[in-house]
Design a protein that fits this description.
The structure holds three protein chains of three kinds. Chain A is α+β, with helices and mostly antiparallel strands. Chain A contains twelve helices and 13 strands. The C terminus of chain A is likely disordered. Helix content of chain C is about 35%, strand content about 10%.
C-alpha cells in the first residue's frame, strides 16, 4: 500500500490520473473501517486532508458551493439557514466524532443507499462538481449521480471537489429511521424541500432502494394538488387525504430489501410515515404556523 | 460543592428484616458501608491502567486466528505452505501441531477443540493460528492458508436437532449428561416437578398460555479479547490475560500445553468488562502455543468482528408457558418448557439449564409446577454465560404471563404479583425453602411508589426537543404518534455457583508495619472486571483490621482460586474469604498484643477487643495499644480458603434439591414513549428497587444496578445477534449492526436500595450484579405493550413488530 | 513510511509505519500511549477519541499518514491540556511533566487528592463513573471538549455530546453525574 499526500487540488488530480485505482480518503469514516476489518487493501490511499479547498464553502446567489470535505459539524452549525435539509441530515450522521471528520464528498463517493446526505441533496436540488486532470471540471446533477448500489457516475480518474446545493427558498425537512436514538445507520430516510419559487416540492428517499431516489410520482401528485388548491398562495392546510396520498406514493417509490437492519415492508411503511410528517412540518412552517423548520435540537 | 446525585442508596423502613449491624471497625474510615472510591480509578482516568490489549513486550509477535467461513463442514484439507512462506511469519499451527493428546477444553464438558479437527461445527470456529512480526503480516498469512471444506447440513433449531435423521453435532459424546438426555443433540435436560400441575390445572378458573422467543444477546464488553503470552526460561509460559477466572483458565490451558500448572503462570491484566463472556477460554491457549513454538512473546488482540465469534453469547430461547389462577387471583399452577439453543459447544449450557428450570416460574408462590428446561447442540454460535444466566430468558416469559393473567382477571398487574409474591419461608419448585428475606411485594411497592416522570418532557416553548423523543436525533417525530406506557416486572436470581458445585474462594491477608504505619495487603485471584471487587476488599480489610492503608495485590495464580467473577458471587465469596482471613489475622494480632502488652492492662484478658483506627481498643472504646507497637518486628499473614454453605444437585427426574445458596430480587418500573406509527421506542425512565442485604459500597451497588438495568433495556429493544437459519452464519458481527444502547437510549435510572440482611452471608450481603438485568427487559416490554396494546411475544422488539411489518 | 506529529505537546515520530495503520495503532503500539482504546475500530464506540487539531475524532478512523504535522491530544495529555486551558496558555508541557502526578497503586483515588488530574477526570472518579474503565478515556476526551464549548450543558446536551461513546458497564447514569459534577465544580470555581 502506498500513501499519497497531495498538497493541492492539482496534485490530487494528477495523482488520481496516475493511479486511477487510488482510493481517496478524507474523513476516513468509510475507508478506514474497510481497512481495519481487512475488507479492502487498496494499492494506493490518496489522502485529501491537505487539500484546503475541499474544506471551504462559498455562498453564491442561488446555491452554496460546499467543499467535498467540509465536515458535517460545520454544515449543521454554519449552513443551517441556507441548507436546512442538509443541516438536519448532517445532525443524524453517526456521532459528534464522525460528524467532525466526515463530509458530503465521502457520502457521494461511497454512494451507499444509506448515506445520510443523499435524500437532502435530492430534495434540495444539487450538482456534484467533479474533476479530472485530463478533462477538467464537469457538473453532474445529483439525480444522475447514483448509478447503482455503491456505484456512482465518477470516472476512475475523477475526484469530487464540491457539491453545489441550491439555497433553500422554503422550508426543508429530513427524517431518518434507525433502531437506536443516536449513532445509527439509516433503516430508511426521507428528505423533503418546498420550493415556493418554482412552486414545486422535491423529495429524496434513502436506504429504501438500490440507490437514493426521488419519489417523482408523489412530487407530481403533490405539485398538482397544491397548484389546484391555490395552496402556494392561500397557504391553506394540506388536506389529510392529500398528505396520505402523497405518503402512499412515496412508499410506492421504494424498492427496498429485507436485511438485518429492517424489513422491506417496514421500510416502505416508514417512508410513508416520514413523508406525511415531514410534509406537514414543512408546510406548517411555510404557512407560518410553526416557529421553526425543524425540531429544537 | 454539590455532591453527585447518587440515587437513594439508603433504605427506609425494613418490613421483613434489618441491615446487619457492624461493630468491629465501625469507627474506621473507608470501611464497609461507605462509598469509597475505586483504587484503580486514577489509573483508569489517566489512560495508564494496563488492559490486556495494552500489553507490550520487546520482540513480541502478533498472533492471528483463521476461523471457519462456514458453520458446519468436514475439513478436507488444510494447506499452510503459502502462509509459512510469507516473510515475517514465525509460525503457523493447526490441529496436527498440538503438542499433547489433550486437544480439547471446556468449562464442564471438554468438547471444544483447541483448533478444528476434521470438522467445524459453527461459523467462526478457529482452524489455524499464525504468529508474525506485524498484525498485518499475520492477517495476510492467515488469508493464505487454504482450507477446503465439504459442507454438511446445519442444525439450527429444535426441529432440525431432534429430527429422526438429524446429523449429530457431536458424534462421540461421553460426557456425564449423555446418559439422561433423549437425543445426543440435547446437551442437558432438567425437569422440575412439584405437586400435581395437571390436577391443579383442573382447579384453575383462568388459564393463559404463551409462546415466547428470546433473541441471542452478546455481552459486548468494550475491551476485546486479548492477552500476551511470554515464554519463560524454565520452559513454561507467563500469560497476561483478561479473564473472569484465572484458575479455571489454568486448569484448561496447562494440559493442552503439556505443562504442569506451576509452569503456566497467569497474571490478570486489565479487564475491559466481562458479563459472562470471559468465562470460557478465547485466545489463551492459542497465544501460549505460539509463544512456546516461537520462543517469543506473542500478543493476540481480537478486533470487534472477531470478538463476536470469540466468545459465547446469551442463549436464545423458545419458551412455552401455561399459567393458571383462581378468579380471586391466586396462582394455581405453572407448566412451562424452556428450550435453550446452546450452539455448537457446551460451554456453560448445563448450568444455564439448571437455572432456567429452577428459577423458571419466578418469585411467586406456586405449589403445583411442571417445568422442563433443556439446551440443544446446534451449529449456531456457542452460547453460555451472560449476566443473568438462564434466569433472564425465563423472567421475560413468566412476567409476560403474569401481565396476561392479570389482564384476564381484571386485576392491577402489581397487585396481582404482590398477591402471589414469595416471601421468606416460601418453598421453591425445587423443594428448597427460601431461608432469608425475599421482599418481592415490598420491592414492587417501592418501585410503584416512586414519582412518575412528567408527561411530554420533550415539549418546551422552543418546540419539540427531538433528543427526548423516540427516534432521537433522527428527527422522526415532534410528538406525532407518541403514546406513553408503563410496565412492571420483578425477578429472582440465584447468587453463587449452584447444584453442589464446590464454590470457594481464597484470600491471603498480610498485616505489617510499613514506614511507621500499619498496612494490610490483600491478595486474591479475583478477577476485577470493573465490578469494584478491589474497592470492596480494601473496605473489608479496613473494617476488619482497623487500618487506613490497604494494598490490593495484583490478581494472579500465585494464590489459590477465587472462583469466577460470575453469578453475582464475588463480594459474597471472595469478600467472605477476605473477611475470614482478616478475622484470623485480627485474632493473631490480638494474640501478639496479649503476649507483648497483656500484663499492662486487665482488659487484654477480659474485654472484647477491637481494632480501630490503627489501635487496639476495648468494646468500650478504651485504647490499649497502637498497632504499630503490636506489630513492631512482626508480620502476620493468613491464607485460607472459604466456602459458603454447600448446595445439592437437582434430582434428574424431579428437580428436587437445595440447589442454590442465596436468591436475589429486583423489581423495575419502565416508562416508555412509543412512536406507534414508526414503531420507535424511547425509554423515559427505568426505576429499580433491589434488596442487596447490605450495601458494602452504596455507590458501586447503584452503579451495578444501573448497568444491569441498561443491559436489560438493550435486550428489550435492540440487541440481537442475527443468525441466518439457512446457513447458521452470523449476519451482524459488528457494532454497526449489533446495537447496544447509547447514552441517548438510556433513561434516568432511579434506584431504591433495600438492605435486609441474609444471616447466612458475610455482613448479611446479597449478590447484586445480575438481578437488575432480569426484570429490566420484561418491564420495558410490559410498558410497550401498555402503550401499544400489542401482544409482543419476542424480544428484542423491533420497529417492524410494532407496526405489523415484520 | 515515517509519520511526524505532535502528541500532548511533544513532537513524536514513528518509523516503518504501514500505510494502512490508523492513528490509534500508532499511538498505542508505536508511541507507547495505549490510553486511547481499541474497542471497535469502526467509529461506533468512541473509546479511541482524541483531539486532532483540537477537534474530537475517532483515532481509529484517521489514517496514520493523515496525522502528519498535526496536533493530537490523548487522554494521557488531558490533565495538561486542562491546565493550560485554565492558565490560558498555548505553550506545550512536556509529557513527563504531565505524568508527574503518577498515582500510587493500592490506595484509593480519593476525592480532590489528584491535583494532577483534569477536573473532568476527578469528577469521573468521584461520581463513580468508572467501572471497567475501557470507555473512560474516550468519554473523558469527549466530556472535556463538551465542557470547553458549553460550560453549563443541559442533560440533553450532555447526552447528545456523548452519544458517540458507548459504555457497557454503568448504564450512563454515573457518567451523567460526573459531567454535571465537573460543570458544577467549574461554575463554583472549585
Amino acid at each position: 500500500m502506498d500513501f499519497l499526500r497531495p498538497a493541492s487540488w492539482e496534485e490530487a488530480l494528477a495523482a488520481k490520473a496516475e493511479h486511477p485505482t487510488a482510493v481517496p480518503i478524507a474523513g476516513g469514516t468509510d475507508v478506514m473501517v474497510e481497512i481495519n476489518f481487512d475488507h479492502r487493501r487498496p494499492e494506493y490511499l490518496l489522502d485529501l486532508n491537505r487539500v484546503g479547498d475541499l474544506y471551504e464553502w462559498e455562498r453564491g446567489e442561488d446555491s452554496v458551493r460546499l467543499g467535498a470535505s467540509v465536515p458535517y459539524t460545520h454544515i449543521m452549525e454554519q449552513l443551517r439557514a441556507e441548507l436546512p435539509g442538509l443541516a438536519l441530515a448532517s445532525h443524524t450522521v453517526a456521532s459528534p466524532q464522525i460528524r467532525n471528520r466526515g463530509g458530503v464528498g465521502g457520502n457521494l463517493g461511497t454512494a451507499s443507499p444509506a448515506g445520510d446526505a443523499h435524500p437532502a441533496l435530492l430534495a434540495a436540488g444539487a450538482e456534484v462538481e467533479v474533476a479530472s486532470a485530463a478533462r477538467g471540471t464537469r457538473m453532474i446533477p445529483v439525480d444522475d449521480f447514483y448509478t447503482g448500489v455503491k456505484r456512482n457516475a465518477l470516472r476512475p480518474d475523477e475526484l469530487i471537489r464540491a457539491v453545489h446545493v441550491k439555497k433553500a427558498d422554503g422550508p426543508q425537512q429530513y427524517s431518518k429511521v434507525g433502531t437506536r436514538n443516536a449513532m445509527v445507520i439509516a433503516v430508511c430516510a426521507f428528505g423533503l424541500a418546498l420550493h415556493p419559487g418554482t412552486r414545486t416540492v422535491r423529495t429524496g428517499i434513502g436506504s429504501a432502494a438500490p440507490t437514493p431516489v426521488r419519489a417523482k410520482a408523489a412530487e407530481e401528485f403533490l405539485n398538482a394538488a397544491l397548484e389546484e388548491g391555490g395552496s402556494w398562495d392561500n397557504r391553506k392546510t394540506i388536506a389529510p387525504s392529500v398528505a396520505q396520498r402523497f405518503a402512499d406514493l412515496c412508499s410506492a417509490a421504494c424498492n427496498p430489501i429485507d436485511d438485518v437492519r429492517g424489513t422491506a415492508s417496514y421500510r416502505r411503511h416508514a417512508v410513508g410515515v416520514m413523508a406525511r410528517r415531514t410534509l406537514t412540518w414543512a408546510w406548517e412552517s411555510y404557512r407560518g404556523a410553526r416557529r421553526a423548520t425543524e425540531g429544537a435540537a | 460543592m454539590p455532591s453527585p446525585q447518587l440515587g437513594s442508596a439508603r433504605a427506609g423502613g425494613a418490613p421483613t428484616g434489618a441491615p446487619t449491624k457492624i461493630t468491629q471497625g465501625a469507627g474506621t474510615k473507608g470501611g464497609i458501608g461507605e462509598s469509597t472510591l475505586r483504587p484503580d480509578g486514577t489509573l483508569k482516568v489517566t489512560g495508564e491502567f494496563a488492559y490486556s490489549s495494552d500489553m507490550w513486550h520487546e520482540d513480541m509477535l502478533w498472533g492471528q486466528i483463521l476461523r471457519s467461513t462456514v458453520a458446519h463442514a468436514e475439513i478436507v484439507s488444510i494447506d499452510t505452505s503459502e502462509a509459512l512462506a510469507l516473510p515475517g511469519v514465525y509460525a503457523v499451527m493447526t490441529y496436527d501441531d498440538l503438542p499433547t493428546e489433550v486437544k480439547h477444553y471446556g468449562l464442564e464438558i471438554r468438547d471444544t477443540p483447541v483448533l478444528a479437527h476434521g470438522k467445524v461445527r459453527h461459523h467462526g470456529e478457529p482452524v489455524a493460528i499464525v504468529a508474525a512480526d506485524h498484525p498485518e503480516t499475520a492477517r495476510r498469512a492467515a488469508a493464505r492458508i487454504k482450507v477446503e471444506y465439504r459442507e454438511l447440513p446445519v442444525i439450527t433449531d429444535e426441529e432440525s436437532a431432534l429430527a429422526p435423521d438429524a446429523v449429530l453435532v457431536h458424534e462421540h459424546r461421553d460426557d456425564h449428561h449423555v446418559g439422561h438426555v433423549a437425543h445426543p443433540n440435547i446437551v442437558h435436560r432438567q425437569p422440575i416437578v412439584r405437586g400435581d400441575a395437571a390436577a391443579a390445572a383442573g382447579r384453575a378458573e383462568v388459564i393463559v398460555t404463551g409462546e415466547y422467543t428470546f433473541g441471542m444477546q452478546d455481552q459486548a464488553f468494550l475491551g476485546p479479547e486479548s492477552g500476551l503470552a511470554v515464554p519463560e526460561e524454565d520452559g513454561g509460559v507467563h500469560l497476561y490475560i483478561a479473564t473472569q477466572w484465572l484458575h479455571s483458565d489454568l486448569r484448561q490451558i496447562a494440559p493442552v500445553l503439556g505443562l504442569p500448572e506451576r509452569k503456566v503462570r497467569m497474571t490478570l491484566s486489565g479487564v475491559g468488562g466481562a458479563f459472562g463472556g470471559r468465562e470460557d477460554l478465547s485466545m489463551q491457549i492459542h497465544a501460549c502455543l505460539l509463544a512456546l513454538r516461537t520462543g517469543k512473546p506473542v500478543k493476540i488482540v481480537y478486533n470487534r468482528f472477531e470478538s463476536f465469534f470469540g466468545h459465547v453469547h446469551r442463549h436464545p430461547a423458545k419458551l412455552h408457558y401455561e399459567h393458571g389462577a383462581t378468579r380471586d387471583g391466586r396462582l394455581t399452577h405453572v407448566r412451562c418448557r424452556i428450550v435453550l439453543d446452546g450452539g455448537a459447544y457446551a460451554s456453560a449450557s448445563p448450568a444455564v439449564v439448571g437455572n432456567a428450570a429452577s428459577l423458571g416460574i419466578g418469585p411467586y408462590v406456586v405449589d403445583d409446577v411442571d417445568i422442563e428446561a433443556l439446551a440443544l447442540y446446534t451449529n449456531n454460535p456457542p452460547c453460555g454465560a451472560m449476566r443473568g444466566f438462564g434466569a433472564v430468558q425465563a423472567c421475560f416469559a413468566y412476567e409476560a404471563q403474569m401481565d396476561k393473567l392479570a389482564k384476564e382477571l381484571g386485576m392491577d398487574p402489581v397487585e396481582f404479583r404482590q398477591l402471589n409474591a414469595m416471601e421468606q419461608g416460601t418453598v421453591m419448585p425445587t423443594g428448597q425453602p427460601v431461608d432469608s428475606p425475599a421482599p418481592v411485594a415490598e420491592l414492587l411497592r417501592r418501585v410503584k411508589a416512586m414519582p412518575l416522570p412528567p408527561e411530554r418532557q420533550w415539549e418546551s416553548s422552543e418546540g419539540a426537543d427531538v433528543r427526548q423523543l423516540p427516534g432521537g436525533l433522527s428527527n422522526t417525530t415532534h410528538g406525532e404518534g407518541v403514546v406513553r406506557g408503563i410496565g412492571y416486572a420483578v425477578g429472582i436470581k440465584n447468587v453463587g455457583f449452584s447444584e453442589g458445585f464446590d464454590d470457594y474462594s481464597t484470600a491471603r491477608v498480610r498485616m505489617e508495619v510499613i514506614a511507621g504505619e500499619p498496612v494490610a495487603t490483600v491478595h486474591t485471584a479475583m478477577a476485577e472486571v470493573g465490578q469494584g471487587g478491589v474497592t470492596v476488599h480494601a473496605q473489608i480489610a479496613r473494617t476488619e483490621l482497623g487500618v487506613a492503608q490497604v494494598t490490593i495485590h495484583p490478581a494472579d495464580t500465585q494464590v489459590g482460586s477465587a472462583g469466577s467473577t460470575s453469578a453475582s458471587r464475588q463480594t459474597y465469596v471472595t469478600g467472605g474469604a477476605v473477611k475470614n482471613a482478616c478475622e484470623r489475622v485480627r485474632a493473631q494480632v490480638l494474640e501478639i498484643g496479649r503476649r507483648k502488652f497483656g500484663s499492662r492492662h486487665p482488659a487484654w484478658a477480659t474485654a472484647e477487643l477491637l481494632l480501630e483506627n490503627g489501635k487496639v481498643v476495648t468494646d468500650g472504646g478504651e485504647v490499649l495499644a497502637d498497632l504499630v507497637d503490636v506489630l513492631e518486628g512482626e508480620a502476620v499473614e493468613v491464607a485460607e480458603e472459604w466456602r459458603h454453605r454447600p448446595t445439592e444437585a437437582f434430582d434428574l427426574r424431579t428437580g428436587q434439591g437445595n440447589g442454590h445458596v442465596q436468591y436475589s430480587f429486583a423489581a423495575h418500573r419502565a416508562v416508555v414513549e412509543v412512536d406507534t406509527e414508526l414503531g420507535l421506542v424511547k425509554v423515559v425512565e427505568l426505576a429499580c428497587a433491589q434488596d442487596v442485604g447490605k450495601a458494602l459500597n452504596p455507590l458501586s451497588v447503584v452503579g451495578q444496578i444501573q448497568g444491569g438495568t441498561a443491559q436489560g433495556l438493550g435486550i428489550a429493544v435492540m440487541e440481537e445477534i442475527i443468525v441466518d437459519p439457512r446457513t447458521a452464519k452470523v449476519r451482524n458481527p459488528s457494532f454497526t449492526d449489533y446495537l447496544i444502547p447509547t447514552i441517548l437510549d438510556t433513561p434516568t435510572i432511579p434506584v431504591d436500595v433495600l438492605e435486609l440482611a441474609d444471616v447466612h452471608a458475610p455482613y448479611g450481603l446479597r449478590g447484586v450484579g445480575e438481578a437488575p438485568t432480569l426484570s429490566s427487559t420484561p418491564a420495558v416490554l410490559a410498558a410497550i405493550r401498555n402503550a401499544t396494546g400489542l401482544e409482543l411475544n419476542r424480544t428484542p422488539v423491533r420497529p417492524e413488530h410494532l407496526t405489523g411489518t415484520a | 513510511m515515517r509519520v511526524t506529529f505532535t502528541v500532548n505537546g511533544r513532537p513524536q515520530e514513528a518509523d516503518d509505519v504501514w500505510e494502512g495503520e490508523s492513528l490509534l495503532y500508532v499511538l498505542r503500539e508505536r508511541l507507547g500511549l495505549p490510553g486511547s482504546k481499541n474497542a471497535c475500530e469502526q467509529g461506533e464506540c468512541g473509546s479511541c477519541t482524541v483531539r486532532l487539531d483540537g477537534v474530537p475524532v475517532c483515532s481509529c478512523l484517521v489514517a496514520a499518514g493523515q496525522a502528519e504535522g498535526r496536533d493530537v491530544v490523548t487522554v494521557e495529555g488531558l490533565a495538561d491540556h486542562a491546565r493550560r486551558r485554565s492558565r490560558g496558555d498555548s505553550a506545550g508541557t512536556p509529557l513527563d511533566e504531565a505524568k508527574g502526578w503518577r498515582a500510587e497503586g493500592g490506595t484509593d483515588s480519593r476525592a480532590g487528592a489528584g491535583t494532577g488530574l483534569a477536573p473532568v477526570q476527578q469528577a469521573f472518579i468521584d461520581a463513580g463513573a468508572v467501572q471497567c474503565g475501557f470507555c473512560t478515556p474516550g468519554l473523558l476526551v469527549a466530556s472535556d471538549d463538551l465542557l470547553e464549548r458549553n460550560p453549563n450543558p443541559s442533560d440533553a446536551d450532555i447526552r447528545e455530546a456523548l452519544s458517540g461513546n458507548l459504555c457497557r458497564c454503568t448504564g450512563y447514569e454515573k457518567i451523567m453525574d460526573a459531567v454535571r459534577l465537573a460543570a458544577a465544580r467549574r461554575s463554583e470555581g472549585v
